[in-house]
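ok so i was messing around last nite and threw this chain in just to see what happens. nothing serious, just curious
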Amino acid sequence: MKRILYYISLLVFPSLYGQEVKVEANTNNIKIGEQIQYKIAVKAPADAAVQFPEGQTFGALEMVKTRPADTLNASASYELVKEYYLTQFDEGKYAIPPQKIRIGNQDYFTDSLHIEVHNIAIDTLKQPLYDIKPIQEVPAPAKSYFWVWLGIGIWLFILAAFLFYFLVIRKKKITFPWQRKQLPPFDRAIQDLKDLQNSKYLIQSQHKEYYTRLTDIVKVYLEDEVHILAKESTTDELLDKINVLQEEGKLNLTEETINNLKRVLQNADLVKFAKNKPSDNNAEYDRETIENVVIKTKEAIPEIPSEQQLDEQAYLQQIRLKRQKRKRLLIRIAAGVGLFIFLSGVGLYFGYRSLKNWLFNPYISELNEGKWITSDYGYPITELTTPKALTRRQIVDIAEYKSLINNQYSFYMGSLNSELYILTNIFSFRAGMDDNQNELLLDPQKVNEIMLSELDKAGAKNITTLQEEYTTPSGIKGIKVYGKMTIPDEVGRPMNASYELYSFTENNALQQLLITHINDINADELTKRIVNSITFKN
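result:
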């Protein structure tokens, strides 16, 4: 009868027997720094949501990495296997606490596992111990001027491209037009009319462009040869100016030549403004007419006396020389302005760097401007944001507090004699301690005595000590001990520095943060940034 009821319950309530949680580790004994492969296997119905532990939930053991859950499908259920890799750097016996797995809306807990961490035995007979080597002075690395040389290279490339364009490419482009401009006005006009005859304006039915070019040729010729303002004049205005020259005796054109010029200019106005479209034969006839007008005008100009002609040539030569001087002056001014801007930029850059290095410590400035790292340290976890990741250091033996401390973690960056030193200590208390014992640890005369003695060992002198209560931006209260000192740097030269020591008690542990730095405005900002990043995780 009991067996029948059991099977009935399996059929009616399958979800009560569909979940199974197992845990296993590949070993229970490791050496310091080795990793444990910790697996959690969950068997659950196919429609159930499974949530595995996340973060540092493995007690004193640190999770190095984890892998995505591996799924094995069955008929009505599936099995999930998730792997964690754990380690510990301190010798001792540790327990991995039960882990919570949520399946659907119900929580399940694994069994606890006991792990033993062994120290690495060192045979001092085969491997003798040596004294710590003294600090070696390393030459400072050469400063990188990559961006300066890159800027110089870009500027030189632009300058070379500019010179190449104006001295080679543009010179080729303007050689023919420039040579054409050097011809006398009459020869240039005749050559332009022949080019117009060989153009494709009429073939492409571009009569407006054809007549525009035709009138430009004759007007430019009249300006250069007869010295009248023809380009900006209308047809009537131009004919009036020619008549004035006729009356003054400076031009001897026949009535027929003037009428021919008038007819072509009027035809051009009709084509350009009234969209008239003459035949190609008429257009060619107008071109021949203008060519004849140019020839007749050349013949109609009275000869200038030799002395007057020489004076005019000297005057024109003087104008050309002035224009050339003005052009060279403009080129020199442009080159000078460009060189001045370049040298000013280089000078400002190096001046800024020199002033910055004189006012602020270059190492501290570099750390401030670099990429910072946020990382977790120790257990219970202390999260810090620092210029570089902190390195685990050898734990200092504190004999008088051994009965109170369960575990100690210590991480640092730099040294007490460097321009910046960061040290964080995490002391976890033994189970059963009360608040009075915590207060004992936080007594400034007892807690900070060890840290200040470290400053003495590093050669610090003239140490001033101030104390005040401190509250982090997140509302966590602690004690701040700070002051100034004179301490030798890494090569033995005296250095004015400051130190700040923060102590907190969170999650049944004592957390300490010590920062020493050279007296510098940027160092104060750097310290504030580190302290404001303190976060204590459960």
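not much to say yet. The mean pLDDT is 78.
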